[in-house]
Amino acid sequence: MKFILMTVRPxxxxxxxLLATLTSYAQRISGVVRDERGQPLPAAxxxxxxxxxxxxxDAKGQYTFQDVGPGTYTLQASFVGFTTxxxxxxxxxxxxxxxFTLAEDALSxxxxxxxxxxxxxxxLESSVAITTLNSRTIDQRAPRGTGDLLQSVPGVWAxxxxxxxxxKVVARGLAPVxxxxxxxxxxxxxxxxxxxxxxxxxxxxxDMFQRADLSTARMEAIRGGSAAITSANSPGGIFNFIxxxxxxxxxxxxxxxGGFYGNNKGLGRVDAEFGGPLAKGWTYHLGGFYRVDxxxxxxxxxxxxxxxxxxxxNKLFANGRGSLKVYGKYLDDRNTFFKEIALDNTLTTxxxxxTDPVDINYxxxxxxxxxxxxxxxxxxxxxxxxxxxxxxxxxxAIQNKTYSGGFDLSYDLxxxxxxxxxxxxxxxxxxxxxxxxxxxxxxxxxxAPTATLAAQQGYLQFGAGALASAGTYTAAGVPATLAxxxxxxxxxxxxSPTYYDAQTGEVLAxxxxxxxxxxxxxxxxxxxxxxxxxxxxLATAPLNMFxxxxxxxxxxxxxxxxxxxxxxxxxxxSQTTIDTRWFVDGVLSTLGANPRAxxxxxxAPATIPASVGAVPALxxxxxxxxxxxGVYKATDANGIVLQSGLAYTxxxxxxxxxxxxxxxxxxxxxxxxxxxxLRYERVRHTGNKQGWQPGTGIGGLGGVDRNPFTTYDxxxxxxxxxxxTYGTSxxxxxxxxTLVRDPTTKQIIQTNADPDGDGDGxxxxxxxxxAGANYRLSATTAGYLRVSRGNKAPELDYYANNFVNVPLDxxxxxxxxxxxxxxxxxxxxxxxxxxTAFYSYLDNALLQLFIxxxxxxxFTDATFNATRTMGLELETVLNLTNRFSIRGHATLQDAxxxxxxxxxxxxxxxxxxxxxxxxxxxxxxxxxxxxxxxTPAYRIGKFSPYVNYRWFSxxxxxxxxxxxxxxxxxxxxxxTGDLTSKLTIAVQATNLLNSNGIxxxxxxxxxxxxxxxxxxxxxKRPDGTILRGSDINVLNALNSPVFARPVLPRxxxxxxxxxx
Length: 1060
Hints:
By secondary structure, the chain is mainly beta. The chain is built from eleven helices and 58 strands. The two termini are about 60 Å apart. This is TonB-dependent receptor. One of its GO terms (molecular function) is siderophore uptake transmembrane transporter activity.
């Protein structure tokens, strides 16, 4: 024991002295990271290569490493959009100071990209087309929503004329062939590397639930290429927003923004973000925004109001073995979706044919309506008291709420194995109260359609028209001659309506019978009452869309390096539940700059025809429709002409997606890398859908409220007791589609729950693949080649839009996208460039268009089509001097329908009148052959003025290619000033010259038609006759409006950002 003590004691003393010596030499490495203007770069990453140590610079650009042992280290500083710098430092007895001045890497060629790849690589090393926007670039764009920001990406066009939300995004000509409502149909909008939503449907669109704010670090965009196998249902590309994380010191920033529009409405917004260290390698970050936005177009309420909060915890594991990010988000935002407005036929000025000329820049088709409407899914025939109701208040707009939380784990398991795991759970709630579609109705109604727009049926196309239809009475068993007598008794009354302002009660116009022409009575304006309506009324559809979405997404992958190969094996799983309750009403209003709801009444006929009254049963059934002093209400007090009559869609949907993939990146030589990936995907759609019946099924000609003197509820769609399960067959009468019902329960009879033999609902499975190669020509240049084939299961809208009161027994088609691209990248100090030639072929794309024909509404039959696009994307930054630079990108493309079949309904509701037309070879609508985006910027001391100009060439406004949308440009400008290292000011203006370029053509607003149903000279039926109301020249001569949606008008804003 003594020997042991004698031996251990000096060893212990020596060890203590050694540790004390080493500790005395442990020092601090610190410094500041700046740009070439001397401004600090907050959130820059500084690492000690070869160790686990890494820090984030604070708001002043300062960084610090504590307790660094003696030795020589490689210190690396990096920031998105700037070149990475490395230098060796030696730690000895004194603290080390090492400042960095980073030069701009204009196209972020040296930035490591994590989106759309299995192995994070720099843009220069990747064999895909990548665009990265850092927080500075995002700030300079002053985006008016997510869609507007994405136009910063070459090859991408976004229709953001709807406002902050609801954008339609098209990458490389991959435009929705049929459903313009689904804006992100072939691309994936992501946050933290996972889709915002695992599936979308109808109006619960992905960008409704995503916002960029001051806590956004960067956005990475992948076009085509590897997106086919690295993400679900997104063959066209990926847009991934990545949030900031905390650093070694507490720091943050706050920004206040104020602005105004040309309509004297204002904008106020506050953004804030901050973060810092926690214990044992953990950091935190918290950020968000709140804004009140009066709106770019005129509404009697704030168009956008609300905000979000985002937070994360970040852990860097010891020895550089990986990281863990845990994050959450809460969004509560109310938004407005601007619809098409009435323009003249040149599409350059507002429509002036009414008494209130439309302003192309600031008018809307918003109607201020607050109405109680029957809750259609709860209406029951056995109710003897008032039916349940819902409220349509247009001022409630779109209420979007999101709760989400997830994690992102990356960990080095050792021996060449790496683990990556991500998961997110989300809940989305949406109340969508907006307007959809525009139809013009003549103020003077006609009893039957003729060759001109002016003689359409007007308000009689809705419930009141049932009183003038013989079918209404013959369906109740009335003999044809007596039915004709009933119709004749109502004609004088129906042709004598009075129109009122629904809010003030002012009489806007009054009609009376003017005579008989060719045996048909006609109406004229009553000259004793001034006409304050003009020639037309506006009919539009109040949407009542209530969506509840629950979403779970997770992915897991293992990465193994074997020699020169980097293998990745992984799985992606998601389950999305979407419950919809969709009701659509109809409302009448004035046609002009500020539409006002119109109430319509007409007098009741005094007495029942004698021939009908002589039949006791008929007198009892129809005598109550007559009164010497009675007044019929064609609308309710708020102008609602049809309650829940244009749609009734109650569905429960579950989309389960399981994908398994493998990828190999082979470093063939020091210059050449080749990668190949395969992805197998299974998508299962299950759910059910309710059936419906008209309001006459509740109370006959009394409708839902059982009052015969109100006609606005005759076409109400209410629940009929049927529930159809996806993928299930039901018993029908032999040789017909008539459903057989159980004689006792009256329920439809299920015959086979799995007629396809593939399990519940509908199963879609397919294999996608991608192959690419990147060749490093030099240290700053590279070329790449990639071919891929991606697939996409149908959207859940397929089930909602089809199968009306019939079994859902037919699955949709799997869409496929085949792409090829050849690219070149060069990263220079004076000039950086990226050029990509691409080809894409979209097959099996669904076309269905919504038809509104009075109280009848439906979708055209599905056709499956193909498009082909070839093009060239260019992206460059030119640093012409130390002060002057130009950032730009351009896209040249040729997009055509390789195969397109369109069902023309001929303005009828009778399928016997429908016919197919072939639009193959036409250009894809909305896709501009040339898109250019240029941003010159100049530095003057602490200030940086810039100008941005975007130009879009002439495009096709419809699939028929009979409407051309003129070329247009949009000018933006601004100046930012870094007054101190902590304080930055900015003044910015978008659409400075108030361009009114048209982004979406909506048609002439004829009942029972679509935007496809017009052409110079008219459209020929198969029998050679011209389709009524289809000749553009005739429509223009009638001075009828054209509906379209222009670019958002001018916005001017100023902001102050303070960093701490």
